């Protein structure tokens, strides 16, 4: 049984169709890099998996159970956590409080305030500061930590390196493998192909709402990924009449 | 009337306004809903206490113990049944929905109990008029002191609850960003319903205090809403301790106004509210133009 199965998933923003008939399965323990240009539908896909967007049609199954109609907080209880684009921390609350909010769902496991602080030592000194006053790297670490506090089985990371200094991103990516300690499977959306491939075991490329490439890292070449990224050789099932999604 | 007495009476009156404003402030802070039915819900609470203590011939304080959970249930139902739907349609629809609720509550109360003015004062014995003579210049009414103490306890208790409990943190997180709260496992709809239940229960408490210290009838709600609204705005929207301060400022302004002329009681309160609101708007306007001094253009 796959950890996550998507079956012909369509997600719309009003009239705009952001995700088109996406189907795939993710197995436990994989690290999936989801790459693609701006507006390819990566964030929307992650948000649909997390329950922040209700799909127009199609089916999402998690550990064999249908979760398509479940609200986001119920999916968190089942073990799906999203680190949203732009961190989205609770700025009027301290780091500690941000982490504690995520314990309400009651999923106990490897990740506690202490193990999160061990993973991101820079948070320890600032645990009582309001997150509104933190640096970008600290905020991103706090946002990842907050998602980890729900001890997810599937962790979705949306553009964690966006807006951060390269040295900070290096640090985050070094911690990435430690995220698996909590028995999690990772899906990360990343603009930077090199970084994504440095940690991933599988790469998927999205173009105009579709998955146009899906393969194991090492089995697909960088050129194939770049071609799929820009849609140069008309990847699988691409619709040439469709205008690029916003 | 001595200055000390004036300030004491004004501040104690402010305690009542703070008690009344607490729920309004909470609902606005958490759900961004201005509950125009707040005053009418307070009056509904007063009627429930009146009816229960009259029917069973018990103390209004005992009746209040039964009424608070009823009011909490009313708040919960109001959120789940009405406001939750209206929230999906933007800012204006919840406002209109609470306006409609306000009219419905007023007229249902009128239908059921008629236009008679009532008071709980006859049912609470000496507490209605006893006071502590601190000096021959200053006497403190026990009831006013009780109401003030209730306001401080309620606002303080609510602050501690929001700061230090798991549910309190969930309420604050949802208030700040409901979508993200959902993504970390908080059931935002249930949090909203709990906040509404607390807010309406406190409205019932405030309405009961109104009924003990003064009179009420089915149409008393809107005036109470205005007092609560003024206290919230003066104190700064979304701040619980600010609400206490706002209530006290409003009470002081009314008391001071009334010493010049009894007709100035309400007017002084409204003018103070307008002056503070105007000052805030002017400050914002000035800040948008690089500070007060440069915007006024003299100070070179």
Can you walk through the features of this model?
The complex is a heterodimer of chains A (about 250) and B (about 300). By secondary structure, chain A is an alpha/beta fold. Chain A contains eight helices and ten strands. In chain A, strands 6-7-8-3-9-10 form a six-stranded mixed sheet, with helices on both faces. In chain A, strands 2-1-4-5 form a four-stranded antiparallel sheet, covered by helices on one side. Chain A is globular and about 50 Å long. The two termini of chain A are about 35 Å apart. Mean pLDDT of chain A is about 90; it is low at about 235-245. By secondary structure, chain B is an all-alpha fold. Chain B has one domain (about 5-220). Chain B has helices at about 5-30, 40-55, 60-85, 90-115, 140-165, 165-175, 180-185, 190-215, 220-235, 240-260, 265-290, 290-295, and strands spanning about 130-135, 140. A two-stranded antiparallel ribbon of chain B has the order 1-2. In chain B, α1 (about 5-30) packs antiparallel against α8 (about 190-215), α3 (about 60-85) packs antiparallel against α8 and α9 (about 220-235) packs across α10. The longest helix of chain B is centred in the first third of the chain and has 29 residues, at about 5-30. Classes of the chains: A alpha/beta (about 250), B mainly alpha (about 300). At the A-B interface, α2 and α3 of A face α6 and α7 of B.
């Amino acid at each position: 049984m796959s950890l996550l199965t998507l079956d012909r998933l369509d997600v719309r923003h009003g009239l705009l169709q952001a995700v088109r008939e996406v189907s795939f399965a993710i197995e436990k323990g994989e690290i999936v890099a989801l790459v693609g240009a701006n507006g390819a539908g990566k964030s929307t896909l992650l948000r649909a998996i997390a329950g922040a967007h209700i799909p127009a049609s199609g089916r999402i199954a998690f550990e064999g159970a249908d979760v398509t109609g479940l609200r986001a907080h119920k999916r968190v209880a089942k073990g799906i956590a999203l680190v949203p684009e732009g961190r989205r921390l609770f700025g009027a609350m301290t780091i500690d409080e941000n982490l504690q909010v995520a314990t309400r769902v009651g999923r106990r496991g490897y990740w506690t305030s202490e193990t999160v602080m061990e993973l991101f030592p820079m948070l320890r000194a600032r645990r009582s500061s309001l997150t509104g006053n933190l640096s970008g790297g600290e905020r991103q670490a706090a946002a990842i930590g907050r998602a980890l506090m729900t001890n997810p089985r599937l962790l979705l990371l949306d553009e964690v390196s966006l807006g951060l200094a390269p040295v900070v991103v290096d640090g985050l990516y070094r911690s990435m493998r430690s995220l698996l300690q909590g028995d999690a499977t990772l899906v990360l959306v990343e603009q930077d192909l090199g970084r994504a491939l440095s940690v991933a075991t599988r790469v998927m490329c999205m173009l105009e709402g579709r998955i146009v490439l899906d393969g194991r890292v090492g089995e697909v070449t960088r050129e194939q990924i770049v071609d799929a990224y820009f849609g140069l050789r008309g990847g699988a099932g691409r619709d040439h009449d469709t205008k690029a999604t916003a | 009337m001595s200055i000390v007495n004036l300030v004491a009476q004004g501040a104690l009156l402010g305690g009542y306004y703070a008690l009344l404003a607490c729920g309004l402030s909470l609902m606005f802070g958490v759900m961004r809903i201005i509950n125009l039915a707040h005053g009418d819900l307070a009056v509904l609470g007063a009627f429930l206490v009146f009816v229960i203590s009259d029917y069973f011939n018990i103390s209004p304080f005992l009746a209040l113990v039964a009424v608070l959970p009823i009011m909490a249930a009313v708040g919960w139902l109001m959120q789940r049944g009405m406001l939750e739907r209206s929230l999906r349609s933007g800012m204006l629809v919840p406002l209109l929905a609470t306006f409609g609720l306000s009219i419905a509550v007023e007229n249902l109360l009128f239908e059921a109990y008629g236009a008679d003015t009532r008071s709980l004062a006859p049912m609470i014995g000496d507490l209605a008029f006893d006071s502590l003579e601190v000096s021959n210049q200053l006497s403190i009414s026990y009831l006013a002191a009780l109401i003030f103490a209730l306001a401080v306890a309620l606002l303080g208790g609510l602050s501690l609850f929001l700061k230090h409990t798991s549910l309190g943190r969930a309420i604050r997180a949802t208030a700040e960003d409901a979508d993200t709260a959902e993504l970390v496992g908080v059931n935002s709809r249930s949090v909203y319903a709990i906040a509404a239940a607390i807010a309406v229960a406190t409205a019932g408490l405030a309405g009961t205090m109104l009924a003990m210290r003064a009179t009420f009838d089915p149409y008393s709600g809107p005036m109470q809403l205005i007092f609560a609204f003024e206290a919230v705005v003066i104190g700064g929207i979304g701040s619980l301790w600010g609400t206490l301060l706002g209530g006290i400022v409003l009470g002081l302004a009314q008391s001071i106004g009334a010493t010049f002329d009894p007709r100035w009681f309400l007017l002084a309160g409204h003018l103070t509210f307008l002056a503070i609101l105007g000052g805030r708007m002017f400050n914002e306007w000035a800040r948008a133009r690089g500070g007060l001094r440069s915007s006024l253009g003299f100070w070179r």
